[in-house]
Amino acid sequence: MIKYMFGLSILFAISISSCKQETAPQESTYINKELPTIGIIIFDAVITNEILAPLDVFSKHTAKGEKLFNVVFLAAEQRAYKTEEGLRMLPDFTFDNTPDLDVLVIPSSYESAKQYKDPQLVGFVNQQYDQVDYVATHCAGAFTLAASGKVDNKEMVTYITGGQRLKEEFPALDVQDDGVISVAHDGKVFSSNGSLVSYLGSLDLLEALTDPAHRKYVEGSLYLDRLSASN
Question: Domain holding 151: CATH number?
Answer without folding.
Answer: 3.40.50.880
